[in-house]
User: Fold these one by one.
Assistant:
Number 1:
Amino acid sequence: MRLSIDPPLDPGAYPFAHPVRVRFAETDAMGVVHHAAYLPYLEEARVAYLRAIGHPYPEVRAEGVDLTVLEVATRYLQPLRFDDLVHVHLLVGKVTRATFQIAYLLTVEGEARATAVTVHGSIDASGRPTRLPAWVHDLAPA
Amino acid sequence: MRLSIDPPLDPGAYPFAHPVRVRFAETDAMGVVHHAAYLPYLEEARVAYLRAIGHPYPEVRAEGVDLTVLEVATRYLQPLRFDDLVHVHLLVGKVTRATFQIAYLLTVEGEARATAVTVHGSIDASGRPTRLPAWVHDLAPA
Amino acid sequence: MRLSIDPPLDPGAYPFAHPVRVRFAETDAMGVVHHAAYLPYLEEARVAYLRAIGHPYPEVRAEGVDLTVLEVATRYLQPLRFDDLVHVHLLVGKVTRATFQIAYLLTVEGEARATAVTVHGSIDASGRPTRLPAWVHDLAPA
Amino acid sequence: MRLSIDPPLDPGAYPFAHPVRVRFAETDAMGVVHHAAYLPYLEEARVAYLRAIGHPYPEVRAEGVDLTVLEVATRYLQPLRFDDLVHVHLLVGKVTRATFQIAYLLTVEGEARATAVTVHGSIDASGRPTRLPAWVHDLAPA
């Protein structure tokens, strides 16, 4: 796989955090949040991050580009529970000509619950892989 | 609301049934299937029904028509549990020029677990309400 | 069905509103929010309402009571789209000894998009129907 | 991460396959299956596999053991679309005293669409990590 970031466990290492309140619909019969429900949390945090840096995703899409998910890896450390207020911390990692990676740390009251990495590419309106928008390159770590 | 059918509790009253196996992801922290997870069951049964009567939904869409959901009503009688094999029975009820209704009965081992009614309309590729495909009228009860 | 409220279309008729931002994961191939995704919005608003009136749902559950969903009815008026900021307005309607009803209006920038009604009962830890918590009766309209 | 298997792209390398029909509810506004919706497909295939080898998951749970998901990694190769009939191929990889891994290949008409790996542990009824059921060790590759 292309995944190359190891998400830090220190919230201070992340420049951005987005709060998500756990819905009851996201729990399962083990009494905790189902593992698939974490992926929309990551996505919601990405969208909030893009809005925060001046590139709201609806505008990105209106310009004819969709940012696709090429890979996801999630590591579940401690369960999330109904009504938990989860902070999804994120940082942009490696950016190449065609892909970029984001690392995530999910915390509840400062305690690590999960880490994740997503790898993204971009496609045009016809679904073909296309160059990343120029501003994505500015997000790369120095 | 437009809903006008009272779904019968007798499986024999329905001309079509579609089996769905409950996924773990669909349960919640009460240990039963979350109430929102029933709606995709109804949808899956509708799609299977359209396929069975010779109108696979991808073909319907390819002809430029989307069947939209205007209303849904669900009544939860007894919980569904992980791994239950649910039979979703359905029958087409009232068909008007612009809408049609479907009634559903969900059973496990012949026992009623839920009933539902959906009301549908159709839109064209631009999202505007359009006439129902002609074959929908043939589905109306005699 | 037991449903007896007709949700008003005027946001001013509702004592409580809760904002929900539409996730991309909640859209479908018609480009709008999938009809099943509205139910978790209603649930999130109910939970926020209970917190606001001093009965956080985790505390309700800790006291051995679960509020179950007996019926749901939703009417879709205008589509919701990705990234819309939806206000879920709610009001408690009829309260009986064993059930209570909630009416909802979903708006985006003040414009009605959907209405809904849910009917609830309560069960104890063993899953048996039980009396509603006393405070629920105080929520009934005068 | 603990992930150590690289899922083969040849369906013939997998001893088990489970068919899943894509639901409309699982698509998103890009017109393809949302990346989070793949995880319940993997889970459904695991459950079908356990049933096929004589260890239905409800029985596993009744014996007081839950198999938890410690890690998931998914690689999206080609999109899945509404109504696709997806075959989820799986094989059990490395088994240690406390964890085991499963590799997956998703195909449509024999064509690879995605690969994935999940890492699992087991917990007892109180949520504490516990030894894997003995039969899991028999699933390890020779």
Number 2:
Amino acid sequence: MSRTVRLALVGLGNVGQAFLDLMVAKADLLANRYDLALVLTGVADSSAAALNAGRLSPTALRAHKGAGKPLHSFPGSTPGMSAPEMLAEVEADVLLEASAVNLKTGQPGLDCVRAAVRRGMDVVLANKGPLVHAFGELETAARAAGVGLAYSATVCGALPVVNIGRRDLTACDIRSVAGIFNSTSNSILAAMARGGSYQDALRQAQLDGIAEADPSLDVEGWDTANKLVIIANSILRQPCTLADVQPVIGITAITPAQIQAHAARGEVVKLVARAEPDLAGLRNVSGPQYRLSVQPEWLPADAFLVSISGWEMGIVFDTDIMGLQQLKVDERGPIPTAAAMLRDVISLTMDH
Amino acid sequence: MSRTVRLALVGLGNVGQAFLDLMVAKADLLANRYDLALVLTGVADSSAAALNAGRLSPTALRAHKGAGKPLHSFPGSTPGMSAPEMLAEVEADVLLEASAVNLKTGQPGLDCVRAAVRRGMDVVLANKGPLVHAFGELETAARAAGVGLAYSATVCGALPVVNIGRRDLTACDIRSVAGIFNSTSNSILAAMARGGSYQDALRQAQLDGIAEADPSLDVEGWDTANKLVIIANSILRQPCTLADVQPVIGITAITPAQIQAHAARGEVVKLVARAEPDLAGLRNVSGPQYRLSVQPEWLPADAFLVSISGWEMGIVFDTDIMGLQQLKVDERGPIPTAAAMLRDVISLTMDH
């Protein structure tokens, strides 16, 4: 009775490794609850790829990577084989794309998705790059090929923002969206509110393993803008790319003096993404409906967005017939994002 | 290209009438966004039924009911025809069950659902009664008949609590659930916190049209318990009925003196539904996993549940791999619940 789904995983960073952990930890639950068996038949990162039409062991691969060893020394791997090359050969039902975001070109994730769709594989993305660069192309190609394209992991990790917007707010006009989508920036702002400079807070976040060595994607607002672009394309039905988010301003210029001055007035700073009615666009039927922006905002202390504290991410949907919906998630580390990829795998499998 | 879905509506109270409003107001959006045309081919309430294989006019029916006239005086209606009798004859694809909750037997809604499933119709419920009394029977019957059974309107109106639990927290172990599911009780408690007795707050809520003339379902906790039973059956996979929720305590015994005393300690009272690990049940593999309860709780002022203010409803899911997810909705009147029924109609149609 049990259904076997073969997976090809691209990217073995924190999220890819967490997905391997979940494959092992949740195998019994998937069998019992969904009659579902997941097997790994291909894997690739920037150094190598490995293929096995039978199955690769997620346990062995996770232990190998966990010991700090590169994929090219994993038994059976092919050093120098690229992810698209692996995808041209692998026998798999689903591509899991968990490689790092490339803001400039979306590559090599974009070519991986194209290759998988061409071969009739469903695609599950944690990597925002391909969507931000080519949302319309990929949706059209997936529909034409009759494959699924799922990416609930790309916005707010395990909080099902994309799914709620697409599957639940179905007959709504969404008046506006506002959200806090980057927990690194949110944590740094929270640390600054407790005292200390931006540089001190950033350094501590890096020591704690929260912030990347190069934190620019997070603190300069681009990660937040990426997520807003995905929401605009998928939920608001407004074709757009990063160039359409204006302004994109991060948190690097926020000073402790500003924070103190606003605190005295009961205001708190947050890095906020917004989609709001674009009055200029609305006058032109073919123009955009929403104005997209990412910037720090000083908000009253009792605002829902302010209640999204250090580690959390969240969103507010203001709708015409489904009220004001406010959602947030407190999650840590890469497991919840990997769990969102697993949710997408299950959902695609159940739909077919 | 457009797909026509024929609807049979049972119940013409606030929610049923709001659904008629949405059929008219959202007809263009449904056509443009989903290639979907909804037509009404049958309708029933406790006084009469009307059938028309072509179509009944939602505009005319809404105007008739809005003028305070009974269904049995609507042109073409059959006085005394029951809802199950209408369902035995109607040519429809989907039953919309929006009649009043019957706590004792779930009838006549339960027989309506049975009749629709037997005839191969999908079922969309706003009425909790049939689910609370016979969740397992109805799920099994729907599966056997190959029809859809959707009820996202039954818990927290337009907030997609059921859908998130079933479709998004898929591979999770849910550690606990806590929620505020009854906005009438929540509004009364908010009014009492501003000063005034329970009786005064109730009377004002009745004058404002918030509370029913017989408010017992709301203020004695049964509406909240109904929703918890649906969550337990559908999301937590724990077969249960109202008898398994213990205790069920409402807000009628809360006094202004208690509220003031707790306020001095920074505590706020809320009517809280909880599903928590049942340690006795866990020791017995076949026993229940969750202990279900509804009762007033005194919570610290900064708790998320306390932020669910007067008019709002909301829920907290504590999960193993998808973090702590906290959701709330601010909605008024019957439109959002009707919108949730419309969401279910769209979802069932897209799935087939």
